[in-house]
């Protein structure tokens, strides 16, 4: 009789252990169901470039001042700007200030882009980190643009005469230039920028080079 009870206890224990193991396995399966993983891709997080962005060629001239627009590989190509108009057409500018002034002439805004000073990639003007420096840009505005704050800070340290700026400062400077241009045109002195700005800009290629270049 004792052996019968002992056998029954052993069988009961085996059955209980089996049931516990089954419950643990079921619990694990429920705790970690197979689900598709979702991760942010670069395309989801970065600012998408405008699909109609283009590149100037050797014959492109500034829509505002009619001076040469520099291609990306030129030493002054980092300062080229581009606007995309409401009708989808591309307008190129030798310096960012000319782009703002063209909006004044047309009476309508464009999607405005400038080049990152280091990578030369197009970036929206409104998103750029703007630095004012002593660089001789094509129309002597002196503004450089960056997609990263760290790159702008490194540039400021390297140049020594540069500082953070903003779109309002660029707009104010371009407006002053535009008013001077309109005054000159009213006096019958032609359609270009003032002679002072021309001497410091396109008319002397050497003056349009970065600090330290010969």
UniProtKB/TrEMBL annotation:
InterPro entries: N2O_reductase_NosL. Pfam families: NosL. This is NosL protein. Keywords: Signal. The keyword Signal applies. The keyword Signal applies. Residues 184-214 are annotated as: Disordered. PROSITE patterns: PROKAR_LIPOPROTEIN. PANTHER family: HTH-TYPE TRANSCRIPTIONAL REPRESSOR YCNK. Residues 1-21 form the signal peptide. It comes from the Bacteria.
């Amino acid at each position: 009789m004792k052996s019968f009870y002992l056998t029954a206890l052993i069988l009961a224990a085996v059955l209980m252990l089996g049931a516990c193991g089954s419950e643990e396995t079921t619990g694990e399966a429920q705790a970690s169901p197979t689900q598709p993983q979702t991760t942010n891709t670069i395309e989801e997080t970065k600012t998408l470039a405008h699909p109609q962005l283009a590149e100037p060629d050797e014959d492109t001239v500034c829509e505002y001042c009619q001076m040469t627009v520099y291609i990306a590989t030129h030493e002054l190509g980092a300062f080229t700007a581009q606007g995309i108009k409401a009708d989808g057409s591309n307008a190129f500018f030798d310096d960012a200030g000319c782009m703002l002034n063209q909006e004044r002439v047309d009476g309508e805004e464009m999607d405005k882009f400038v080049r990152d000073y280091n990578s030369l990639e197009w970036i929206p003007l409104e998103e750029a980190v703007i630095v004012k420096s002593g660089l001789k840009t094509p129309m002597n505005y002196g503004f450089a643009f960056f997609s990263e704050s760290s790159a702008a800070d490194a540039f400021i340290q390297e140049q020594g005469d540069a500082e953070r700026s903003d779109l309002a400062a660029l707009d104010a400077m371009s407006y002053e230039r535009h008013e001077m241009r309109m005054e000159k045109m009213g006096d019958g002195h032609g359609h270009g920028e003032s002679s002072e700005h021309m001497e410091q800009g396109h008319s002397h290629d050497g003056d349009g080079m970065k600090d330290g270049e010969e």
